[in-house]
Amino acid sequence: MSSVHEEAPVGTGSTFSRRLGLLVAVGLVAVFVLGIFLTEPDQRINPDTGEIIGQFDAVRLLYVHVPTILMAYLAFIVTAVGSFMYLRKKSMAWDILAYSAAEVGVVFTFLGLLTGSIWGRPIWNTWWQWGDVRIMTTLVMFLMYIGYLALRSVEAADPGIQARRAAIVGLIGVLNIPIVNRSVEWWPNRTIHQRSTFLEDKFDGLTFFTLMLALLVFAGLFSWLMMHRFRLGWLQHQRDTEGLDVAISARRAEAEGQFATVAVDGSVVDGSES
Amino acid sequence: MREALLIAGKDLRVEARSRIVLNQVAPFAVLVLVLFGFAFDASVETDALVRFTPGLFWVTVLFVALLTLQRSVAVELGDSAMSGLRLSGVSGVRIFAGKALAVIVQLLALEVLLVAGVVVFYGSRVSDILLLVLTCLLAAVGIGTAGSLYGVLAVGLGVRETLLPILLLPVLAPVLIGATKAFDDALGVAVVNGWAWLSLLAAFAVAYVVAGALSYGLVLEDM
Protein backbone atom coordinates (compact mmCIF):
# COMPACT_ATOMS: atom_id res chain seq x y z
CA MET A 1 0.00 0.00 0.00
CA SER A 2 1.30 3.41 -0.88
CA SER A 3 1.83 6.07 1.74
CA VAL A 4 -0.99 8.14 0.25
CA HIS A 5 -3.46 5.42 1.17
CA GLU A 6 -2.14 5.05 4.68
CA GLU A 7 -2.53 8.76 5.33
CA ALA A 8 -6.09 8.89 4.05
CA PRO A 9 -8.64 9.06 6.89
CA VAL A 10 -11.09 6.20 7.24
CA GLY A 11 -14.09 8.46 7.81
CA THR A 12 -15.21 12.05 7.61
CA GLY A 13 -15.50 12.50 11.37
CA SER A 14 -13.08 14.17 13.74
CA THR A 15 -13.05 14.62 17.50
CA PHE A 16 -14.68 18.01 17.10
CA SER A 17 -17.38 16.86 14.69
CA ARG A 18 -18.19 13.90 16.94
CA ARG A 19 -18.62 16.20 19.93
CA LEU A 20 -20.70 18.61 17.89
CA GLY A 21 -22.81 15.74 16.60
CA LEU A 22 -23.46 14.55 20.13
CA LEU A 23 -24.39 18.06 21.23
CA VAL A 24 -26.76 18.44 18.27
CA ALA A 25 -28.39 15.10 19.05
CA VAL A 26 -28.97 16.16 22.66
CA GLY A 27 -30.26 19.53 21.42
CA LEU A 28 -32.71 17.89 19.03
CA VAL A 29 -34.10 15.78 21.87
CA ALA A 30 -34.42 18.92 24.01
CA VAL A 31 -36.25 20.78 21.22
CA PHE A 32 -38.50 17.76 20.76
CA VAL A 33 -39.39 17.59 24.45
CA LEU A 34 -39.87 21.36 24.74
CA GLY A 35 -41.78 21.65 21.49
CA ILE A 36 -44.08 18.68 21.92
CA PHE A 37 -44.65 18.50 25.68
CA LEU A 38 -43.67 21.63 27.54
CA THR A 39 -44.74 24.57 25.38
CA GLU A 40 -48.37 25.65 25.26
CA PRO A 41 -50.46 25.06 22.14
CA ASP A 42 -51.48 28.22 20.30
CA GLN A 43 -54.98 29.19 21.40
CA ARG A 44 -56.55 32.54 22.02
CA ILE A 45 -60.05 33.75 22.68
CA ASN A 46 -61.62 35.82 19.96
CA PRO A 47 -62.68 38.99 21.80
CA ASP A 48 -65.72 39.49 19.56
CA THR A 49 -67.30 36.05 19.46
CA GLY A 50 -65.76 34.48 22.54
CA GLU A 51 -64.78 31.29 20.68
CA ILE A 52 -61.35 29.75 21.00
CA ILE A 53 -59.16 30.32 17.97
CA GLY A 54 -55.52 29.66 17.06
CA GLN A 55 -53.28 27.05 15.49
CA PHE A 56 -53.48 24.71 18.51
CA ASP A 57 -50.95 21.87 18.35
CA ALA A 58 -50.00 22.57 14.73
CA VAL A 59 -47.97 25.57 15.90
CA ARG A 60 -45.38 23.11 17.26
CA LEU A 61 -44.27 22.39 13.68
CA LEU A 62 -42.90 25.91 13.46
CA TYR A 63 -40.04 24.91 15.78
CA VAL A 64 -38.81 22.79 12.85
CA HIS A 65 -40.21 24.70 9.88
CA VAL A 66 -38.68 28.10 10.64
CA PRO A 67 -35.13 26.82 11.44
CA THR A 68 -34.99 24.52 8.38
CA ILE A 69 -35.87 27.29 5.97
CA LEU A 70 -33.45 29.73 7.63
CA MET A 71 -30.67 27.12 7.39
CA ALA A 72 -31.54 26.69 3.71
CA TYR A 73 -31.01 30.43 3.22
CA LEU A 74 -27.71 30.19 5.09
CA ALA A 75 -26.63 27.22 2.96
CA PHE A 76 -27.34 29.04 -0.31
CA ILE A 77 -25.49 32.11 0.94
CA VAL A 78 -22.50 29.86 1.67
CA THR A 79 -22.86 28.48 -1.87
CA ALA A 80 -22.78 32.01 -3.29
CA VAL A 81 -19.74 32.96 -1.20
CA GLY A 82 -17.97 29.75 -2.19
CA SER A 83 -18.85 30.37 -5.85
CA PHE A 84 -17.62 33.95 -5.75
CA MET A 85 -14.38 32.97 -4.03
CA TYR A 86 -13.86 30.12 -6.49
CA LEU A 87 -14.13 32.53 -9.42
CA ARG A 88 -11.57 34.78 -7.74
CA LYS A 89 -9.11 32.27 -6.29
CA LYS A 90 -9.66 29.21 -8.54
CA SER A 91 -9.18 27.00 -5.52
CA MET A 92 -11.10 23.72 -5.60
CA ALA A 93 -11.74 23.98 -1.85
CA TRP A 94 -14.11 26.91 -2.47
CA ASP A 95 -15.87 24.96 -5.19
CA ILE A 96 -16.30 21.96 -2.91
CA LEU A 97 -17.61 24.24 -0.16
CA ALA A 98 -20.16 25.75 -2.56
CA TYR A 99 -21.28 22.35 -3.81
CA SER A 100 -21.55 20.87 -0.31
CA ALA A 101 -23.61 23.81 0.93
CA ALA A 102 -25.96 23.62 -2.06
CA GLU A 103 -26.59 19.95 -1.38
CA VAL A 104 -27.30 20.56 2.31
CA GLY A 105 -29.42 23.59 1.36
CA VAL A 106 -31.57 21.55 -1.03
CA VAL A 107 -32.22 19.03 1.75
CA PHE A 108 -33.22 21.81 4.17
CA THR A 109 -35.41 23.50 1.55
CA PHE A 110 -37.16 20.21 0.94
CA LEU A 111 -37.71 19.77 4.68
CA GLY A 112 -39.02 23.34 4.86
CA LEU A 113 -41.51 22.67 2.05
CA LEU A 114 -42.47 19.33 3.62
CA THR A 115 -43.06 20.65 7.14
CA GLY A 116 -44.90 23.65 5.69
CA SER A 117 -47.13 21.31 3.73
CA ILE A 118 -47.89 19.19 6.81
CA TRP A 119 -48.59 22.37 8.80
CA GLY A 120 -50.80 23.75 6.03
CA ARG A 121 -53.14 20.74 6.04
CA PRO A 122 -54.79 21.52 9.42
CA ILE A 123 -54.33 25.31 9.31
CA TRP A 124 -55.05 26.22 5.70
CA ASN A 125 -56.99 23.04 5.01
CA THR A 126 -54.76 22.19 2.05
CA TRP A 127 -51.43 20.43 1.50
CA TRP A 128 -50.43 22.85 -1.20
CA GLN A 129 -51.47 26.42 -1.91
CA TRP A 130 -50.75 27.47 -5.49
CA GLY A 131 -51.62 31.13 -5.01
CA ASP A 132 -49.19 31.67 -2.14
CA VAL A 133 -46.28 33.73 -3.33
CA ARG A 134 -43.84 32.47 -0.71
CA ILE A 135 -44.51 28.82 -1.47
CA MET A 136 -44.11 29.54 -5.18
CA THR A 137 -40.85 31.44 -4.80
CA THR A 138 -39.48 28.76 -2.45
CA LEU A 139 -40.41 26.06 -4.94
CA VAL A 140 -38.68 27.91 -7.77
CA MET A 141 -35.59 28.35 -5.57
CA PHE A 142 -35.66 24.62 -4.78
CA LEU A 143 -35.89 23.69 -8.46
CA MET A 144 -33.12 26.11 -9.43
CA TYR A 145 -30.75 24.51 -6.94
CA ILE A 146 -31.76 21.05 -8.19
CA GLY A 147 -30.57 22.39 -11.55
CA TYR A 148 -27.36 23.61 -9.93
CA LEU A 149 -26.72 20.15 -8.47
CA ALA A 150 -27.47 18.58 -11.86
CA LEU A 151 -25.00 20.90 -13.59
CA ARG A 152 -22.32 20.47 -10.95
CA SER A 153 -22.57 16.66 -10.90
CA VAL A 154 -21.97 16.28 -14.65
CA GLU A 155 -18.32 15.41 -15.12
CA ALA A 156 -16.54 17.79 -17.44
CA ALA A 157 -13.21 17.05 -19.09
CA ASP A 158 -11.60 19.52 -16.72
CA PRO A 159 -12.88 19.92 -13.12
CA GLY A 160 -12.13 23.63 -13.47
CA ILE A 161 -14.77 23.97 -16.20
CA GLN A 162 -17.30 22.14 -14.07
CA ALA A 163 -16.53 24.35 -11.07
CA ARG A 164 -16.63 27.62 -13.01
CA ARG A 165 -20.02 26.95 -14.60
CA ALA A 166 -21.50 25.79 -11.32
CA ALA A 167 -20.13 28.93 -9.67
CA ILE A 168 -21.98 31.19 -12.12
CA VAL A 169 -25.26 29.37 -11.48
CA GLY A 170 -24.56 29.40 -7.74
CA LEU A 171 -24.09 33.16 -7.79
CA ILE A 172 -27.27 33.81 -9.79
CA GLY A 173 -29.23 31.45 -7.54
CA VAL A 174 -28.62 33.46 -4.40
CA LEU A 175 -30.83 36.24 -5.83
CA ASN A 176 -33.71 33.95 -4.91
CA ILE A 177 -33.20 34.49 -1.20
CA PRO A 178 -34.27 38.14 -1.01
CA ILE A 179 -37.16 37.35 -3.36
CA VAL A 180 -38.39 34.43 -1.20
CA ASN A 181 -37.83 36.35 2.01
CA ARG A 182 -39.41 39.63 0.94
CA SER A 183 -42.17 38.14 -1.22
CA VAL A 184 -44.78 38.28 1.56
CA GLU A 185 -44.04 41.99 2.02
CA TRP A 186 -44.01 42.80 -1.70
CA TRP A 187 -47.20 40.95 -2.54
CA PRO A 188 -49.08 40.94 0.79
CA ASN A 189 -52.39 40.25 -0.92
CA ARG A 190 -51.05 37.18 -2.73
CA THR A 191 -50.09 35.17 0.30
CA ILE A 192 -51.66 33.46 3.26
CA HIS A 193 -48.25 33.18 4.88
CA GLN A 194 -47.89 35.25 7.96
CA ARG A 195 -45.54 38.17 7.69
CA SER A 196 -42.43 38.34 9.75
CA THR A 197 -43.58 37.99 13.35
CA PHE A 198 -40.16 37.54 14.90
CA LEU A 199 -39.77 41.01 16.28
CA GLU A 200 -43.29 41.43 17.51
CA ASP A 201 -43.57 40.65 21.16
CA LYS A 202 -46.34 38.12 20.98
CA PHE A 203 -44.61 34.91 22.07
CA ASP A 204 -44.61 33.77 25.64
CA GLY A 205 -41.23 33.13 27.20
CA LEU A 206 -40.96 29.37 26.75
CA THR A 207 -42.18 29.45 23.14
CA PHE A 208 -39.60 32.08 22.31
CA PHE A 209 -36.88 30.12 24.11
CA THR A 210 -37.78 26.90 22.28
CA LEU A 211 -37.70 28.65 18.91
CA MET A 212 -34.31 30.20 19.68
CA LEU A 213 -32.95 26.89 20.94
CA ALA A 214 -34.25 25.17 17.80
CA LEU A 215 -32.46 27.78 15.66
CA LEU A 216 -29.22 27.17 17.54
CA VAL A 217 -29.55 23.39 17.30
CA PHE A 218 -30.33 23.52 13.61
CA ALA A 219 -27.35 25.81 13.05
CA GLY A 220 -25.27 23.12 14.79
CA LEU A 221 -26.85 20.45 12.63
CA PHE A 222 -26.08 22.50 9.52
CA SER A 223 -22.43 22.88 10.57
CA TRP A 224 -22.15 19.18 11.36
CA LEU A 225 -23.59 18.18 7.97
CA MET A 226 -21.36 20.71 6.22
CA MET A 227 -18.21 19.35 7.88
CA HIS A 228 -18.95 15.82 6.79
CA ARG A 229 -20.09 16.78 3.31
CA PHE A 230 -17.10 19.04 2.74
CA ARG A 231 -14.65 16.37 3.89
CA LEU A 232 -16.37 13.84 1.66
CA GLY A 233 -16.05 16.22 -1.27
CA TRP A 234 -12.42 16.83 -0.43
CA LEU A 235 -11.70 13.09 -0.27
CA GLN A 236 -13.39 12.62 -3.65
CA HIS A 237 -11.24 15.42 -5.02
CA GLN A 238 -8.12 13.81 -3.58
CA ARG A 239 -9.07 10.45 -5.05
CA ASP A 240 -9.57 12.01 -8.48
CA THR A 241 -6.31 13.92 -8.41
CA GLU A 242 -4.49 11.01 -6.81
CA GLY A 243 -5.27 8.93 -9.89
CA LEU A 244 -3.57 11.65 -11.90
CA ASP A 245 -0.56 11.77 -9.56
CA VAL A 246 -0.16 8.00 -9.73
CA ALA A 247 -0.38 8.11 -13.52
CA ILE A 248 2.24 10.87 -13.69
CA SER A 249 4.66 9.07 -11.38
CA ALA A 250 4.10 5.84 -13.33
CA ARG A 251 5.04 7.62 -16.58
CA ARG A 252 8.06 9.10 -14.85
CA ALA A 253 9.17 5.70 -13.59
CA GLU A 254 8.68 4.31 -17.08
CA ALA A 255 10.76 7.09 -18.57
CA GLU A 256 13.49 6.53 -15.98
CA GLY A 257 13.38 2.81 -16.74
CA GLN A 258 13.96 3.51 -20.41
CA PHE A 259 16.79 5.81 -19.48
CA ALA A 260 18.42 3.05 -17.45
CA THR A 261 18.07 0.63 -20.36
CA VAL A 262 19.71 3.10 -22.66
CA ALA A 263 22.50 3.50 -20.16
CA VAL A 264 23.10 -0.26 -19.92
CA ASP A 265 23.13 -0.48 -23.72
CA GLY A 266 26.24 1.60 -23.56
CA SER A 267 25.14 5.10 -24.32
CA VAL A 268 27.04 8.16 -23.23
CA VAL A 269 24.60 8.78 -20.39
CA ASP A 270 26.38 6.35 -18.12
CA GLY A 271 30.14 6.60 -18.31
CA SER A 272 30.96 3.47 -16.27
CA GLU A 273 31.94 1.41 -19.34
CA SER A 274 35.16 3.25 -19.97
CA MET B 1 -22.89 47.07 -31.15
CA ARG B 2 -21.94 46.57 -34.81
CA GLU B 3 -20.12 43.35 -33.89
CA ALA B 4 -23.14 42.11 -31.96
CA LEU B 5 -25.31 42.79 -34.99
CA LEU B 6 -22.84 40.92 -37.19
CA ILE B 7 -23.03 37.86 -34.93
CA ALA B 8 -26.84 38.06 -34.74
CA GLY B 9 -26.94 38.43 -38.53
CA LYS B 10 -24.69 35.39 -38.94
CA ASP B 11 -26.95 33.27 -36.71
CA LEU B 12 -30.09 34.40 -38.48
CA ARG B 13 -28.49 33.73 -41.88
CA VAL B 14 -27.55 30.22 -40.74
CA GLU B 15 -31.16 29.68 -39.66
CA ALA B 16 -32.55 31.14 -42.86
CA ARG B 17 -30.41 28.78 -44.92
CA SER B 18 -30.73 25.64 -42.84
CA ARG B 19 -34.49 26.25 -42.37
CA ILE B 20 -34.46 24.21 -39.17
CA VAL B 21 -36.65 26.77 -37.40
CA LEU B 22 -39.01 27.02 -40.36
CA ASN B 23 -39.24 23.29 -41.09
CA GLN B 24 -39.04 21.82 -37.59
CA VAL B 25 -39.43 24.30 -34.74
CA ALA B 26 -42.38 26.26 -36.16
CA PRO B 27 -44.39 23.12 -37.02
CA PHE B 28 -43.59 21.81 -33.53
CA ALA B 29 -45.01 24.99 -32.00
CA VAL B 30 -48.28 24.59 -33.89
CA LEU B 31 -48.31 20.87 -33.06
CA VAL B 32 -48.15 21.61 -29.32
CA LEU B 33 -51.15 23.96 -29.68
CA VAL B 34 -53.05 21.21 -31.49
CA LEU B 35 -52.13 18.64 -28.83
CA PHE B 36 -53.43 20.97 -26.09
CA GLY B 37 -56.64 21.17 -28.13
CA PHE B 38 -56.94 17.37 -28.00
CA ALA B 39 -55.92 17.18 -24.34
CA PHE B 40 -58.57 19.68 -23.29
CA ASP B 41 -61.10 18.10 -25.64
CA ALA B 42 -61.84 21.32 -27.50
CA SER B 43 -64.90 19.79 -29.16
CA VAL B 44 -66.71 19.86 -25.80
CA GLU B 45 -64.86 22.39 -23.65
CA THR B 46 -64.48 25.32 -26.01
CA ASP B 47 -64.57 27.84 -23.16
CA ALA B 48 -61.78 26.11 -21.25
CA LEU B 49 -59.38 26.58 -24.15
CA VAL B 50 -60.13 30.29 -24.40
CA ARG B 51 -59.79 30.69 -20.63
CA PHE B 52 -56.46 28.86 -20.49
CA THR B 53 -55.02 30.24 -23.72
CA PRO B 54 -52.51 32.56 -21.95
CA GLY B 55 -50.96 29.72 -19.93
CA LEU B 56 -50.94 27.26 -22.81
CA PHE B 57 -49.45 29.91 -25.10
CA TRP B 58 -46.52 30.63 -22.80
CA VAL B 59 -45.84 26.99 -21.94
CA THR B 60 -45.63 26.40 -25.69
CA VAL B 61 -43.26 29.34 -26.04
CA LEU B 62 -40.99 27.85 -23.35
CA PHE B 63 -40.87 24.47 -25.12
CA VAL B 64 -40.16 26.11 -28.44
CA ALA B 65 -37.54 28.36 -26.84
CA LEU B 66 -35.68 25.29 -25.57
CA LEU B 67 -35.40 23.98 -29.12
CA THR B 68 -34.33 27.36 -30.48
CA LEU B 69 -31.67 27.70 -27.77
CA GLN B 70 -30.32 24.19 -28.37
CA ARG B 71 -30.03 25.20 -32.01
CA SER B 72 -28.33 28.51 -31.18
CA VAL B 73 -25.66 26.62 -29.26
CA ALA B 74 -25.39 23.73 -31.73
CA VAL B 75 -24.45 25.99 -34.64
CA GLU B 76 -21.31 27.01 -32.75
CA LEU B 77 -20.23 23.44 -31.99
CA GLY B 78 -19.69 22.21 -35.54
CA ASP B 79 -16.36 22.94 -37.26
CA SER B 80 -15.04 24.59 -34.04
CA ALA B 81 -17.13 27.65 -34.87
CA MET B 82 -16.92 28.74 -31.23
CA SER B 83 -13.13 28.86 -31.38
CA GLY B 84 -13.43 30.98 -34.51
CA LEU B 85 -15.78 33.31 -32.71
CA ARG B 86 -13.41 33.66 -29.75
CA LEU B 87 -10.38 34.16 -31.98
CA SER B 88 -12.19 36.96 -33.82
CA GLY B 89 -11.34 39.21 -30.89
CA VAL B 90 -14.94 40.17 -30.23
CA SER B 91 -15.55 40.59 -26.50
CA GLY B 92 -17.74 38.17 -24.55
CA VAL B 93 -20.36 40.84 -23.93
CA ARG B 94 -20.82 41.46 -27.64
CA ILE B 95 -20.91 37.77 -28.50
CA PHE B 96 -23.58 37.40 -25.80
CA ALA B 97 -25.54 40.34 -27.20
CA GLY B 98 -25.35 38.95 -30.72
CA LYS B 99 -26.32 35.39 -29.81
CA ALA B 100 -29.18 36.59 -27.58
CA LEU B 101 -30.43 39.02 -30.22
CA ALA B 102 -30.68 36.27 -32.83
CA VAL B 103 -32.65 34.08 -30.39
CA ILE B 104 -34.95 37.02 -29.53
CA VAL B 105 -35.72 37.67 -33.20
CA GLN B 106 -36.55 33.99 -33.76
CA LEU B 107 -38.70 33.88 -30.63
CA LEU B 108 -40.63 36.95 -31.76
CA ALA B 109 -41.32 35.31 -35.11
CA LEU B 110 -42.53 32.15 -33.35
CA GLU B 111 -44.69 34.20 -30.96
CA VAL B 112 -46.39 35.89 -33.93
CA LEU B 113 -47.08 32.45 -35.37
CA LEU B 114 -48.46 31.23 -32.04
CA VAL B 115 -50.72 34.26 -31.60
CA ALA B 116 -52.15 33.50 -35.02
CA GLY B 117 -52.44 29.88 -33.90
CA VAL B 118 -54.46 30.59 -30.75
CA VAL B 119 -56.72 33.01 -32.61
CA VAL B 120 -57.48 30.39 -35.27
CA PHE B 121 -57.54 27.17 -33.22
CA TYR B 122 -58.72 28.37 -29.80
CA GLY B 123 -60.91 31.25 -30.91
CA SER B 124 -59.09 33.74 -28.68
CA ARG B 125 -59.62 37.47 -29.24
CA VAL B 126 -57.01 40.14 -28.74
CA SER B 127 -58.48 42.97 -26.69
CA ASP B 128 -55.33 45.01 -26.00
CA ILE B 129 -52.88 44.81 -28.88
CA LEU B 130 -50.26 47.11 -27.37
CA LEU B 131 -50.07 45.11 -24.14
CA LEU B 132 -49.83 41.91 -26.19
CA VAL B 133 -46.95 43.24 -28.27
CA LEU B 134 -45.04 44.58 -25.27
CA THR B 135 -45.51 41.32 -23.36
CA CYS B 136 -44.19 39.30 -26.31
CA LEU B 137 -41.23 41.64 -26.65
CA LEU B 138 -40.21 41.74 -22.97
CA ALA B 139 -40.71 38.00 -22.53
CA ALA B 140 -38.61 37.30 -25.63
CA VAL B 141 -35.80 39.49 -24.28
CA GLY B 142 -35.93 37.70 -20.91
CA ILE B 143 -36.02 34.22 -22.42
CA GLY B 144 -33.41 35.06 -25.05
CA THR B 145 -30.87 36.49 -22.59
CA ALA B 146 -31.36 33.98 -19.75
CA GLY B 147 -31.55 31.16 -22.27
CA SER B 148 -28.37 32.17 -24.10
CA LEU B 149 -26.47 32.26 -20.81
CA TYR B 150 -27.74 28.91 -19.53
CA GLY B 151 -27.52 27.41 -23.01
CA VAL B 152 -23.81 28.05 -23.17
CA LEU B 153 -23.37 26.81 -19.58
CA ALA B 154 -24.75 23.42 -20.58
CA VAL B 155 -22.50 23.12 -23.63
CA GLY B 156 -19.68 20.65 -23.87
CA LEU B 157 -20.86 18.54 -20.98
CA GLY B 158 -22.26 15.88 -23.31
CA VAL B 159 -25.72 15.97 -21.72
CA ARG B 160 -26.84 19.33 -23.09
CA GLU B 161 -30.27 18.11 -24.23
CA THR B 162 -31.31 16.94 -20.78
CA LEU B 163 -29.42 19.47 -18.69
CA LEU B 164 -30.70 22.66 -20.32
CA PRO B 165 -34.41 22.15 -19.45
CA ILE B 166 -33.75 21.40 -15.77
CA LEU B 167 -31.42 24.39 -15.51
CA LEU B 168 -33.46 26.87 -17.50
CA LEU B 169 -37.15 26.16 -16.87
CA PRO B 170 -37.11 27.02 -13.13
CA VAL B 171 -35.24 30.21 -14.00
CA LEU B 172 -37.92 31.13 -16.54
CA ALA B 173 -40.78 30.56 -14.07
CA PRO B 174 -41.19 34.33 -13.42
CA VAL B 175 -41.50 34.94 -17.17
CA LEU B 176 -44.19 32.28 -17.44
CA ILE B 177 -46.12 33.78 -14.52
CA GLY B 178 -45.75 37.42 -15.60
CA ALA B 179 -46.43 36.83 -19.28
CA THR B 180 -49.45 34.63 -18.54
CA LYS B 181 -50.96 37.31 -16.28
CA ALA B 182 -50.29 40.03 -18.85
CA PHE B 183 -51.90 37.87 -21.55
CA ASP B 184 -54.91 37.28 -19.30
CA ASP B 185 -55.50 41.00 -19.62
CA ALA B 186 -54.41 41.38 -23.26
CA LEU B 187 -56.74 38.59 -24.38
CA GLY B 188 -59.46 39.76 -22.03
CA VAL B 189 -59.99 36.38 -20.32
CA ALA B 190 -59.51 37.49 -16.71
CA VAL B 191 -59.88 40.69 -14.76
CA VAL B 192 -56.28 41.51 -13.96
CA ASN B 193 -54.08 44.52 -14.50
CA GLY B 194 -51.71 43.13 -17.11
CA TRP B 195 -49.63 46.30 -17.27
CA ALA B 196 -48.51 45.80 -13.68
CA TRP B 197 -47.10 42.40 -14.61
CA LEU B 198 -44.99 43.93 -17.38
CA SER B 199 -42.73 45.33 -14.66
CA LEU B 200 -41.90 41.77 -13.54
CA LEU B 201 -41.01 40.86 -17.12
CA ALA B 202 -38.93 44.02 -17.49
CA ALA B 203 -37.09 43.42 -14.20
CA PHE B 204 -36.34 39.84 -15.25
CA ALA B 205 -35.05 40.96 -18.65
CA VAL B 206 -32.80 43.60 -17.08
CA ALA B 207 -31.47 41.12 -14.49
CA TYR B 208 -30.46 38.61 -17.14
CA VAL B 209 -29.04 41.17 -19.55
CA VAL B 210 -26.72 42.18 -16.67
CA ALA B 211 -26.01 38.61 -15.52
CA GLY B 212 -25.26 37.51 -19.07
CA ALA B 213 -23.04 40.49 -19.81
CA LEU B 214 -21.04 39.83 -16.63
CA SER B 215 -20.58 36.08 -16.94
CA TYR B 216 -20.86 35.03 -20.60
CA GLY B 217 -17.22 35.83 -21.28
CA LEU B 218 -16.15 33.65 -18.33
CA VAL B 219 -17.94 30.64 -19.78
CA LEU B 220 -16.51 31.23 -23.26
CA GLU B 221 -13.01 31.00 -21.85
CA ASP B 222 -13.25 27.27 -21.30
CA MET B 223 -15.03 26.18 -24.46
Task: Spell out the blueprint of helices and strands.
The complex is a heterodimer of chains A (274) and B (223).
Chain A: H1 3-7, H2 15-38, E1 42-45, E2 52-56, H3 62-89, H4 92-123, H5 133-153, H6 159-173, H7 176-186, H8 205-264
Antiparallel strand pairs in A: 1-2
Helix pairs in contact in A: 2-8, 3-4, 3-6, 3-8, 4-5, 4-6, 4-8, 5-6, 5-7
Chain B: H1 2-18, H2 20-39, H3 46-77, H4 81-87, H5 92-122, H6 129-153, H7 160-171, H8 173-186, H9 194-221
Helix pairs in contact in B: 1-5, 2-3, 2-5, 3-5, 3-6, 3-8, 5-6, 5-9, 6-7, 6-8, 6-9, 8-9
Radius of gyration of chain A: 27 Å
Tally the helices of chain B. 9
What proportion strand of chain B?
under 5%
Question: How many structural domains can be distinguished in the coordinates of chain B?
Answer: 1
Estimate the helix proportion of chain B, in percent. Answer: over 70%
Rough shape of chain A? elongated
Q: pLDDT average of chain B, as an integer?
A: 90
Mean pLDDT of chain A: 84
- Beta-strand residue percentage of chain A: under 5%
For the termini of chain B, the CA-CA separation is: 23 Å
